[in-house]
Write a structure and sequence with these properties.
This protein is an alpha+beta fold. It is built from 17 helices and 20 strands.
């Protein structure tokens, strides 16, 4: 196949021949000329995912390190307007952009529109190397030893369409952090990279700490360290060895539900897995150096940034229009200084990751006016504008306010994370998006001035698979069901407490939360959160963090809190709401199909 790209913008090459082939294959499938299972695997490699609703699909746009250009934001807005009936896009916890309810017959048109500005869906789904996540501060972080972005781009380019990675036992999720704070949460990924430098013969050598075998969902694990240091001129070769060992593990293919690389690493141990990797590196294919230099993603953002006036930065926090209180709160919670003098990163809170069709062009214009014409999505389902001049912060806030996107306190307890749940996912058990909205409404009625409370994270998933990353939240929930009056089903959640991860402002290192026994009816979860916060504030030691409090008191008190809310009551007119899920108007019933991730 020709490697001619449609558009040179962005990290991943989009090939017209591939898009034309997709259109042809879809036509053949509709005519009955393709085996459904084979077509499904083909469709997933093209980033087109089946939904729980028949005859419509989700398109997942792959955005390495979350980066998106202004013209690409406009294109994403076109997709939301022309192809997505919900008229919105959804930012995922892995920095992708998803569009739902797209008919299969229109998918090839949407993929062509995306390709014109260098947006790719290739291998965003299926048993492939999925999107490469990154830290939104890479390249502008005070603490980074070097910018990992070019190397993340090289990794994404090298393994895209790679013959080893087209049908592995399961998917591979990767992340590149910018420094030891690990803001990209490499520890919950299949493969993760943290940049490091060392001195060799008086010369600085760049490299990566490589971790392997992290993941959430079933058997949640923090990734152990494979190598403390791998030079940058060898990280692709070592990565390929890891993927070849994984791909050759045929025993994993016997049970796709337990086929992620973490199961192999957990079974043999990281030391034995390292032996397997080093044995792979002795094979003929590995005797050739894999130089990343031709593949590096070299993008000079600084050259496109507005000229900064460092002296103006302090005055930027003063509003001339009488709205200083609102602006100052936003600036205090949503703005981070860059290592480049006079520039700042402005974080835009996207409630539950949704961007409406009319907001895309506004965001595109904002990135042109205030940053380098680029932005980055984050794993917290938010957006980061880099290279914002200090004196531009107030007019930026004003424009964001006019677009409905100036909500303050990003990465705090009000910044709730949720997967789509039963809104679209075949595996969804509960309406996690509906619950997320309900929790935000409940939090708006609670005094959150306590800094230790404000710093907490709440995340939820519509099933145990943890697409909402509930395992690493201070307070997390995953969907389930309960039996109620007359055998009727009730939407419910299991609670997790004490999880953590590093965000841009710190917190603790990543750890998996603990699960108190007992399910909570979905409609009672906001009340449970209120009670948990009151219990924490009323019983903690001075300056005791929530996770330290959980460690000290154990799970029993949280199980007692959950038990207070477990009485379902009869199914009658007064209590019927308990038997319906959030944002739904019919009696709840578990309707769960077969997921496509394992195909």
């Amino acid at each position: 196949m020709s490697q001619a790209r449609i558009n040179e913008k962005g990290i991943l090459p989009v090939l017209q021949e591939e898009l034309d082939n997709f259109e042809s294959v879809v036509g053949e499938f509709i005519q009955g000329d393709w085996d459904p299972t084979a077509f499904q695997a083909f469709r997933l490699r093209m980033g087109v995912y089946g939904q729980r609703q028949p005859d419509v699909h989700m398109l997942r746009v792959k955005l390495p390190v979350g980066e998106v250009f202004a013209e690409q934001l406009e294109t994403l807005g076109t997709i939301a307007r022309e192809y997505a009936p919900l008229k919105k896009g959804h930012v995922t916890t892995r920095e992708n952009m998803q569009f739902h309810f797209v008919p299969l017959t229109e998918a090839h048109e949407a993929l062509n529109v995306l390709g014109q500005t260098g947006l790719s869906t290739r291998e965003a789904c299926g048993n492939t190397v999925r999107n490469v996540a990154g830290c939104p501060l890479s390249g502008v972080c005070h603490e980074e030893p070097f910018d990992a972005t070019p190397y993340a781009g090289a990794f994404a380019r090298y393994f895209l369409r790679h013959p080893v990675t087209q049908s592995m036992p399961r998917k591979i999720k990767t992340a590149f952090s910018g420094c030891e704070k690990d803001c990209a949460i490499t520890s919950i990924h299949d493969i993760g990279f943290i940049p490091r430098v060392r001195e060799v013969d008086g010369q600085e050598e760049r490299g990566f700490k490589i971790v392997v075998g992290g993941g959430l969902s079933i058997m949640a694990r923090i990734a152990p360290t494979l190598y403390e240091f791998v030079p940058v001129n060898d990280y692709l070769r070592v990565s390929e060895a890891v993927l070849r060992v994984f791909d050759a593990s045929d025993e994993l293919r016997k049970n796709r539900m337990k086929a992620r690389i973490k199961f192999l690493v957990d079974r043999v141990g990281i030391d034995e897995f390292r032996v397997m990797v080093e044995s792979e590196l002795e094979k003929p294919w590995a005797q050739v150096t894999i130089d990343p230099t031709p593949l590096l993603y070299l993008d000079d953002e600084a050259s496109d940034a507005p000229e900064a006036e460092p002296a103006a930065a302090p005055e930027a926090r003063l509003s001339p229009n009488g709205d200083a209180g609102e602006f100052d709160l936003w600036a205090a919670t949503n703005v981070e200084p860059q290592k480049q003098d006079g520039y700042f990163v402005a974080l835009i809170k996207l409630p539950q990751g949704d961007i409406m069709e009319d907001q895309f062009p506004l965001l595109a214009e904002i990135t042109r006016n205030y940053s380098s014409g680029r932005a980055r999505f984050t794993q917290q389902q938010n957006m980061a504008l880099r290279w914002v001049r200090g004196e531009s912060l107030y007019p930026l806030w004003r424009d964001l306010r006019d677009a409905g996107l100036a909500e303050p306190e990003v990465n705090t307890i009000t910044d709730v994370t949720s997967c789509p749940g039963t809104d679209s996912c075949k595996l969804g058990i509960t309406s996690s998006m509906g619950l997320g909205r309900a929790i935000r409404e409940e939090l708006a009625t609670i005094d959150l001035s306590d800094p230790l409370v404000k710093s907490l994270h709440i995340k939820m998933s519509g099933c145990p698979n943890s697409c909402g990353q509930h395992h690493i939240a201070n307070i997390g929930f995953h969907g389930g069901s309960m039996k109620g009056d007359g055998g009727n089903q009730v939407p419910a959640y299991e609670m997790f407490v004490g999880g953590s991860y590093q965000d841009l402002r710190g917190q603790d290192e990543a750890r998996i939360g603990m699960r108190p026994k007992g399910k909570i009816p979905a409609k009672r979860v906001p009340e449970v959160i209120r009670t948990v916060l009151e219990f924490y504030q009323g019983n903690r030691a001075e300056a005791e963090t929530f996770n330290s409090f959980v460690d000290r008191v154990g799970l029993a008190p949280f199980e007692a809190i959950a038990a207070e809310y477990q009485d379902l009551g009869p199914l009658n007119r007064e209590n019927i709401d308990t038997y319906m899920d959030w944002s739904k108007t019919v009696l709840y019933k578990v309707e769960r199909g077969e997921g496509e991730c394992a195909i």
